Amino acid sequence: MSTHGGGHEGIALHWYLPTAGESRSFQNGGTNVHVPVELQTDAGFRAPSLSYLSQVALGLEETGFESVLVPTGSYCEDPWVVASALVARTSTLRFLVALHPRTTTPALTAHQAASFQRLSGGRLALNVVTGEPGAEARRHGDTGDKTAQYKRTDEFLSVVRALGAGETVDVVGEYYSVEGATIASARRPAPAVAPEVWFGGSSDQALPVAGAHADVYLSWLEPLDQLAEKIDRVRSAAAAFGREPRFGVRSWVLARETDDEAFAAAEDHLAGLDDQRLAATRPLLLGRQSVGQQRGQALLEHADHRDPQSLRIARNLWGGFGLLAGGPALGFVGGYAAIADRFEEFAALGVTDFILSGFPNLEESRWVGEGIIPELRRRGLSRH
């Protein structure tokens, strides 16, 4: 069983911080939306300034979100810098800081995490992202295949967790070698509660690493039956290590008073979508080596933006976001009560944590925070 901190009962909602900037219009860019250079415009674009990101973070805290995911990648601002700036402007919001093992060392990460825990009063969790082979990996000198990348992640997390527990570590590994590494001393012991490790990956290489290290196993949103099979495999992998992780999903969301209002707003996101742009974007999304991405995009094989029904993959699960955006292919779309119903169904499967994002994040977080969170509380389902 994990010894890391964090509540285990009830549903908790988390949000996504737009550290690459975003637009009011879905088609004009923002969270993982690819916009061809010739179509890019500054009209309506919101730069990821400290002021704007603070507005998002303070709104999340005010409406009752548990934490915010601070993404990582060369396309966005550095997550440690952003989280460190915002932790001083907030009081209770937790920060789920994403990081790639290929861009850092386990000793440095453990040191950063311990400092953040001490200075924030324990408001840190780590989202460890293995990634996939490709251009982003090569920017950091990572030319390994998927098997090599997950071996590195396994080594990385083994050292980070040992250091976080206050141990002194001597390891000669394939990817990391450390001698006498520690983050603790008599006057500065390791934090009493180490940050949770959130980890995702749908490939055969990922599941043993998830079983060994994940406090929260994170998947892209998938239909219940498809996700259930994956959760069973992760549970089996974790049981081999005597562990029981929580489960979470990463998803888009569009919530309104009623289903009709929500789906109308969702379909507005695709209004006027140019077929040529779609034809240029789809191969980029379909060519990803991430198994999780492939599983999601396969659900959109017969989706057509001109046919609204083809985008309704399951009840209140909409595939329109995945036509242009990387990340989760599906999103929750519907009225507050209907989405709360879906959350209950996922919770029955074992999914209790939902990392959500919308377009734009500032406004959509208020729809969710002022509509869905109160609904979950009325039902006695909220963790807090």
From TrEMBL:
Limits of the Luciferase-like domain: 41-352
EC top class, as a word: oxidoreductase
Entry keyword set: Flavoprotein, FMN, Monooxygenase, Oxidoreductase
Pfam family, one: Bac_luciferase
Annotated GO biological process: alkanesulfonate catabolic process
Molecular function via GO: alkanesulfonate monooxygenase activity
E.C. number(s) listed in UniProt: 1.14.14.5
Annotated InterPro entries: Luciferase-like_dom, Luciferase-like_sf, SsuD_RutA_monooxygenase
Stretch forming the signal peptide: none
Name assigned to this protein: Alkanesulfonate monooxygenase
Native source organism of the sequence: Conyzicola lurida
